[in-house]
Design a protein that fits this description.
Number of strands of chain A: 11
Oligomer: heterodimer
Number of helices of chain B: 0
Radius of gyration of chain B: 13 Å
Largest sheet of chain B: 6 strands, mixed
Structural class of chain A: mainly beta
Distance between the termini of chain B: 35 Å
Number of strands of chain B: 9
Distance between the termini of chain A: 40 Å
Radius of gyration of chain A: 14 Å
Structural class of chain B: mainly beta
Largest interface: A-B, 21 and 24 residues
Strand content of chain A: over 45%
Largest sheet of chain A: 7 strands, mixed
Amino acid sequence: EVHLVQSGAEVKKPGESLKISCLGSGYSFTNYWIGWVRQMPGKGLEWMGIIYPGDSDTRYSPSFQGQVTISADKSISTAYLQWSSLKASDTAMYYCARPILVRGLIRIDSWGQGTLVTVSS
Amino acid sequence: QSALTQPPSASGSPGQSVAISCTGTSSDVGGYNSVSWYQQHPGKAPKLMIYEVSKRPSGVPDRFSGSKSGNTASLTVSGLQAEDEADYYCSSYAGTNSLGVFGGGTKLTVL
């Protein structure tokens, strides 16, 4: 069974850096895309970006390009989402998600439990 | 690209059927058979309910069904039960240069 387990909630100040993680298990981590989805308070879901751990191919949604960094360490089956300078508007729930991408078809078949990031002075 | 359009709310009584629409364009919903639907209960992660327009993952009740006509997809929940009360999001593939696009979500209330 596929499991995605995320790191715990974070409370940060504006301008601080942050790296949250997502540990994948129950499948071959290097052979599937893995990504991050943002959900702002009371709002909908937004793709941030995805990475293919096998070759580190990384793709970002235009809204998040340059705002965050997505990485993965295949030796420990872990994906990361990183900010260098947080803003209050980064306050949100962040979900790790495994998209299945096959020739024009996409679905997310597994989700992490979510990491709540709160940015406040 | 723009989010897919969903009604903000839908409701039905136990046992009834309710349909939730998801409208996009020929660049996403209308262009691919890759519409998915996700159920999200408060404080929980989303859960895949329908993929590739009308396929159900193992374990999803057959009360949930999906369809598509042109640029609009629909999720139908038949025989409504109290536990179906949740937010529902549609999503679609939107081309090779996209990660896909989500709808704004529909809050389903079981009266």
